[in-house]
Amino acid sequence: MAQFFDSLDWTLLLKIIKKRVNDGALIRLIGKWLNAGVMEGKNISYPEEGTPQGGSISPVLSNIFLHWVLDRWYVRDVKPRLKGRSFLVRWADDFLVGFEREDEARRVMAALPTRFNLFKLTIHPTKTVLTRFQRPSPAGEKDGENGTFDFLGFTHFWAKTRRGFWVIKRKTAKKRLRRAMKSIWEWCRKHRHDRLSEQHRMLCLKLRGHYQYYGVRANYENLVAVMRYAVKAWKYWLSRRSSKSHITWDAFTRLNRVFPLPVPRICHVI
Q1: Mean pLDDT of the chain
Q2: Cβ neighbourhood burial of 97 (10 Å; 0-12, 13-18, 19+)
Q3: What distances in angstroms separate CA 241 from CA 41, 111, 170, 203, 257, one per listed residue?
Q4: pLDDT higher for 257 or 49?
Q5: Cα–Cα distance list, 92 to 18, 43, 62, 84, 108 (Å)
Q6: What is the mean pLDDT of the segment spanning 230-258?
Q7: What is the pLDDT of residues 39-80, one digit of tens each?
Q8: CA gap 194, 241 in Å, rounded
Q9: Do 127 and 133 meet the contact criterion of CB atoms below 8 Å apart?
């Protein structure tokens, strides 16, 4: 969805909540929460629509709204009319719908904009795509008939196991990988004058957090790439703390023995 958290209509949201909630005090509390305003730096704004990303109430309200807009519509109106198998996976404002039949996928794809327009929402023009994703056939292995797709920061693709079976694997999406590396580079640049112990502590937290989310099976190489980039960025900016602070790789290796960075590990087997 395009700018869902910024374009959510309050009137429609409250109407949906009132279908299940009869407590006027709770409705007024939600209204106060929405009208509280958003502070960015030293500036405060009072938007008339949307829920602030990062707000404590935003995930709950967005799930209630999208449950009515998408989940309920899919279960009651879409799925009973399908001849093939289908499923829906949604996380906040990101969702994935799988179909066994291509004609049914195209029909639902055409109906989605109309459904979302009823609730003053729009489908993202570039992220919303129809992708053929099935186990590659022997003839299609060379033709490249099977595509890939990105969802929740992962690129999903078909690959063969060591025993020759086709399975779905996941790896960090290229945009997320570049963003993670850029974030580490900028942090090392801004905090290169901090104490080494503090820099080491924060880098360990950042890398462990990255491993906890992206540490899935078949994604180990990308985890290693992020760790190696963190080592490179840390050495580069430590060498630029002053005109006389150049660090050789031998010296940095000795430093890394005292302040070792966490080794990548697989946290989720899915």
Answers
A1: 88
A2: middle
A3: 28, 57, 39, 17, 21
A4: 257
A5: 21, 27, 7, 26, 20
A6: 92
A7: 767 777 776 677 766 667 888 888 888 999 999 999 999 999
A8: 10
A9: no
Dihedral angle sign, alpha carbons of residues 137, 138, 140, 141: positive
**Percent of the chain scoring above 70 in pLDDT:** 91
Ordered DSSP codes for 24-48: HHHHHHHHHHHTS-EEETTEEE--S
Helix-strand-coil percent breakdown of the chain, rounded to 5? 50, 15, 35
Contact 228, 235 (CB under 8 A): no
C-alpha atoms less than 13 angstroms from C-alpha of 241 in its C-beta half-sphere:
14
Q: Report pLDDT for 34.
A: 77
User: Could you tell me the two tokens for 103?
Assistant: 């004609």
Tokens of 124: 């993202």
At residue 244 the predicted structure's pLDDT band, cuts being 50, 70 and 90, is: confident
Which residues neighbour 209 within 8 Å (Cβ) at sequence distance 6 or greater? Answer: none
Residue entry with tokens 């940095």: 252
Q: Is 96 helix (H, G, I), strand (E, B) or coil?
A: strand
pLDDT for the residue 201: 96
Grouping H, G, I as helix, E, B as strand and the rest as coil, residue 95 is strand
C-alpha torsion sign, points 205, 231, 172, 211: negative
Residue 154 sits at φ, ψ, to 5 deg, of -115, 145
Residue tagged 């404590």 (tokens): 56
Whole-angstrom Cα distance, residue 134 to residue 149?
12
Cα–Cα distance for residue pair 20/27, rounded to 1 Å: 11
Evaluate whether 27 touches 17 at the Cβ level (below 8 Å): yes
